[in-house]
């Protein structure tokens, strides 16, 4: 039997996923990580896809589906938007998502979130949304959002599975374990609502620009590592009894 490299990887580090049904009586918050033009819209910048990408398109569709339900129910949503000052590069990446440009704004399919009263927009200038939430006075805007909304279950979607999503998950679970995020209990990553970028080894070698980053493989590894930190990974997300909007 010939296994391709993805099958081999999935055999060596298998990922068990679950179906999440969001319970009606559990206070649930949705975090959307960096679903912005600079990472998702074809041709929008140095780190944007060069051509249409099905994993990224699906991530946007699924994030929008979840966001619609959360907004209908007036449940809390927090959207992180990668936004950098032009004179402050984010090593090792080229200039991207400069504050005030379309690159650092939500993709067209999610732009309506800006008008929703239950949505908090948090701009950040680092990979990790938890670290990016630290404010000048030392408080943490994400931790405050969890506490103010009494969030017990956190659902996470966005891009990139193995970079900004993973870093945020790792910090959030460390903080939860230290007791900083009560009443938060569970953190669930929705795999179909996450995506990462594609930079195959052949292209990386040819252009000598950065580390190889094969999409399917890194997406899987990102989810696997999030699970290793204690996140739950859901392949399906549905809702229990919902109030009629
Ligand atoms: Zn960035």
UniProtKB/TrEMBL annotation:
One Pfam short name: Isochorismatase
Domain Isochorismatase-like: 29-198
Record CDD domains: cysteine_hydrolases (cd00431)
SUPFAM superfamilies, A to Z: Isochorismatase-like hydrolases
InterPro entries: Isochorismatase-like_dom, Isochorismatase-like_sf, NIC1
GO biological process, one term: pyridine nucleotide salvage
UniProt GO molecular function: nicotinamidase activity
Family from the record: Belongs to the isochorismatase family.
UniProt-recorded name of the protein: Isochorismatase-like domain-containing protein
């Amino acid at each position: 039997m010939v296994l391709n490299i993805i099958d081999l990887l999935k055999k060596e580090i298998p990922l068990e996923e679950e179906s999440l049904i969001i319970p009606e009586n559990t206070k649930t918050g949705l975090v959307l990580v960096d679903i912005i033009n600079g990472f998702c819209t074809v041709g929008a910048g140095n780190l944007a896809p060069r051509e249409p990408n099905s994993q990224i398109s699906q991530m946007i569709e699924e994030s929008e589906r979840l966001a619609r339900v959360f907004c209908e129910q007036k449940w809390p949503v927090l959207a992180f938007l990668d936004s950098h000052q032009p004179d402050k590069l984010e090593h090792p990446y080229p200039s991207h998502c400069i504050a005030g440009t379309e690159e650092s704004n939500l993709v067209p399919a999610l732009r309506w979130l800006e008008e929703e009263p239950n949505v908090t927009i948090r701009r950040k200038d680092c990979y990790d949304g938890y670290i990016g939430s630290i404010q000048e006075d030392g408080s943490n805007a994400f931790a405050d959002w969890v506490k103010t909304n009494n969030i017990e279950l956190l659902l996470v979607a966005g891009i990139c599975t193995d970079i900004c999503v993973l870093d945020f998950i790792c910090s959030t679970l460390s903080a939860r374990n230290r007791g900083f995020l009560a009443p938060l209990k569970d953190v669930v990553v929705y795999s179909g609502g996450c995506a990462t970028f594609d930079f195959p080894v052949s292209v990386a070698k040819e252009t000598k620009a950065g580390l190889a980053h094969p999409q399917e493989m890194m997406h899987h590894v990102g989810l696997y590592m999030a699970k290793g930190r204690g996140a739950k990974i859901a392949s399906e997300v549905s809702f229990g009894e919902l109030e009629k909007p």
